Amino acid sequence: MTDAPGSAEERLPEQETVAEFNSSHKSNFHRLLGFLQTTPSAIPLFVLVTAVIIFGILNGNRFFSPFALTLILQQVAIVGIVAVAQSLVILTAGIDLSVGAIAVISSVIMGKFTFDLGIPGELAVLCGLATGLFFGTANGLLVAFVKLPPFIVTLGMWQIVLAANFLYSGSVVIRSEEIAQVAPILQFFGRTITVGGAVFTYGVILLLFLVLLMSYILSQTAWGRHVYAVGDDPDAAELSGVKVKATLVSVYAIGGLICGFAGWALIGRLGSVSPQAGQLANIESITAVVIGGISLFGGRGSVAGTLFGALIVGVFTLGLRLLGADVQWTYLLIGALIIFAVTVDQTIRKVSL
Amino acid sequence: MTSPILTARKLNKRYGRVIAMEDCDFDLMPGEILAVIGDNGAGKSTLIKALSGALRPDSGEIRLEGKPVHFSSPIQAREHGIETVYQTLALSPALTIADNMFMGREILKPGIMGSVFRQLDKKKMQNFARDKLTELGLMTIQNIAQTVETLSGGQRQGVAVARAAAFGTNVVILDEPTAALGVKESRKVLDLIKTVKSKGIPIILISHNMPHVFEVADRIHVHRLGKRLCVVDPKQYSMSDAVALMTGAMAPPDQEAVA
Ligand SMILES: Nc1ncnc2c1ncn2[C@@H]1O[C@H](COP(=O)(O)OP(=O)(O)OP(=O)(O)O)[C@@H](O)[C@H]1O
Ligand SMILES: [Mg+2]
C-alpha cells in the first residue's frame, strides 16, 4: 500500500508516451480517412495509375501505346455509360439490375422501328431513347411511390424487359451492312476520331462527356446535392426540404434515359442490333461503381470514381490478356478489388458514425 | 384581444394501435415563446410534426393567421415561414454545413451560370452559414466546408438551430434544441431564442429542461397523453407544479381562466 503512489508515478510517463504515440498514429489514420471521405475517387485513381504502370512495364509498348490505351476506353465505353446511370441510382442507396436490359431493348427498338415500321433512323433513335426513359421512370415510380425495395423492383423489371426484348425481336439480329445502308445514324457512336495512334469512338466521347456532365450536375447543382441527401438519409432529407420522391423518380428516369443512350452506343460498338448483347451489363456496371468507390449504402462517392472503376476493369482485362494469362485471373483480381473497395467504404463509414 | 397566429383544433393521429394525438388543441400567440412540456411519449413531437408539415394528422384543423392550412410536406410549411428544428435534427451527415443549411432553398449563381447552368453559389452560401454560426457562438467549427458527420453532437444541434433561426419568418419550432448541448452552448441557444423573439417571431420550444423553460417561456403548454392538458403562466406556477401537472400528480387548473 505504502509504495503504491510511487509506482503510479513511475508508470505515468510511460502511459503518457503510449497515449501520445497512439493518438498521433490515430490522427494520421483519421486524416487519411478524412481525405478519402471527401475524395472517394482517390483510391480507384491510385489503383488505376498503378495498374497502368505495372502492366506497362510487364507488357512494354504493346500495352503502353496510344492505340492500346484507347482500345481500353472503347472496350469499357458501353459498361461505362451504363455505370453512370448505375452511379446515380446507387448514390440514392438503390440498385438497378435492369440497366443492361433497358439498354438492349432500347437498341432493339431503334433497329426494329427502322426496319419493320420503316420510319427514319433519327425518329427510331428517339423512340429507343424514349423507351429507356419509360422503363427508368417506371422503376422510379415503383421505388418512390409504391415504396418497393429497388433490388426487387429492378429484378422484376430486368426479367420483364429482357423477356419483352426477346418476344419482340424474336432474337433476330439486324445485320451491320443493312443498318449502314438504311440508317447509318444508328451506328453513329461507332464512328471514330484518330489522333496519332489513339482511336476514339464517338461512344468513348459520349462516355467522357456523360461523366463530366454528371460530375458537374452532382457537385454543382441543387438537384445533385439532393441526390446525395436522399441517399444519405431520406427522412432527414424530406424534413429539411428535399422532394425525396421526385428526386428518386428523376434519378431512375435519367438512369433509364442514359441506358437508352448506352443502347444506341451499343449498336455503334457491335455494328449490328443484337437482342443477345449486354447480358452482363448490370453486374459489370455495379462492379465499376463499387470499385470506383461509391458506397452501396448511398450518399457517398463520385461519377469520376465510377469511370476509374470501369477503366480499372478494362486495364486488368487487356493487360492480363496481353500477358497471355488465363482470363479467370481477371475475374479473380476484380473480385478481390470489389471486396477491398467495400472494406474501405465500411471503414470510412464507421469512422464517420 | 389579439388572435393566435397558429392554432390547431381536435388533431388526431394514430400509429396502428398507438394513439399519439387525441383531440389535441394548440394555440400560439404572436410574438410569444410558448414552451411545450410533457412526459416522454406524451406526443409533443407528433404535435409539432403536424404543425410543421412533417406528418398529416388523421383529422383536425390547423390555421395559420386564421386561414386553414393543409401542409403535406415540410417544404410547404417552410414556404409559410414556419421553420423547425426536429428532435432528430434532420441533417445529412455526408454533406457540408452550408449544403445542409440551404437544403431545398439553394442559392444559384447570378447571371447565366445560375439561370441556365443551375450552378450553386457555394461561396455565398458558405459565407451566410459562417455568419449565422458565428452569431450562435459556434466558432469552434474550423471549416464551414466540413461535413456534418465530422461535427460533435452539440455542434450539429447548433447547425440545425442556426438554420431554423436564420430562415424562420413566421414561426420557429424547436424540438429539444438543447438536449445535446453543454452549459455554454445551451446558453447561446437560449440567447438566440430571445433574439428571435425580439424580432417579433413567435417560438414553440419543446424541452424537458424546466429551468430553461421557466427562463424563457411566456406561456407553458402542458401536454399529457396525446393532448393539451392545460396552459399555465410560468409566473404563477412553480417548476414542481409544472412537473406535477405533466405527470398527472396535480389536476389542471380551470381552463377558462387561462385560455
Ligand atoms: N413513427 C411512429 N410509429 C409508431 N409510433 C410512433 C411513431 N412516432 C411516434 N410514435 C408513438 O407516438 C407516441 C408519441 O410520440 P412522440 O414522439 O410524439 O412523443 P414525445 O412527447 O415527443 O416524446 P419525447 O419526450 O420522448 O420526445 C409515442 O407513444 C410513440 O411511441
Ligand atoms: Mg419528442
UniProtKB/TrEMBL annotation, chain A:
Q: Kindly give the InterPro entries that the UniProt entry links to this protein.
A: ABC_transp_permease (IPR001851)
Q: Which domain of life is it from?
A: Bacteria
What membrane topology was assigned to this protein in its record?
A: Multi-pass membrane protein
Any one Gene Ontology molecular-function term assigned to this protein's record: transmembrane transporter activity
The record's subcellular locations are:
Cell membrane
- Which residue windows are transmembrane per the record? 42-60, 67-85, 91-111, 123-145, 151-174, 195-218, 249-268, 280-297, 303-323, 330-348
GO CC entries: plasma membrane
Q: Which UniProt keywords apply?
A: Cell membrane, Membrane, Transmembrane, Transmembrane helix
- Name one matching Pfam family: BPD_transp_2
Name the PANTHER family on file.
ABC TRANSPORTER PERMEASE PROTEIN YPHD-RELATED-RELATED (PTHR32196), RIBOSE IMPORT PERMEASE PROTEIN RBSC (PTHR32196:SF72)
Q: What is this protein called?
A: Mannose ABC transporter membrane protein/fructose ABC transporter membrane protein/ribose ABC transporter membrane protein
From TrEMBL, chain B:
Domain ABC transporter, which positions?
A: 6-250
Q: Does the keyword Cell cycle apply?
A: no
Q: Which InterPro entries match?
A: AAA+_ATPase, ABC_carbohydrate_import_ATPase, ABC_transporter-like_ATP-bd, P-loop_NTPase
Q: Which SMART domains match?
A: AAA
Origin: domain of life:
Bacteria
Stretches assigned to coiled coil: none
* Record Gene3D superfamilies: P-loop containing nucleotide triphosphate hydrolases
Please provide the record's keywords in A-Z order. Answer: ATP-binding, Nucleotide-binding
Give the SUPFAM superfamilies listed for this entry: P-loop containing nucleoside triphosphate hydrolases
Q: Which GO-annotated molecular functions does the record name?
A: ATP binding; ATP hydrolysis activity
Q: Does the keyword Hydrolase apply?
A: no
Pfam families the UniProt entry points to: ABC_tran
Protein's recorded name: Mannose ABC transporter ATP-binding protein/fructose ABC transporter ATP-binding protein/ribose ABC transporter ATP-binding protein
- Source organism per entry reads Cohaesibacter marisflavi
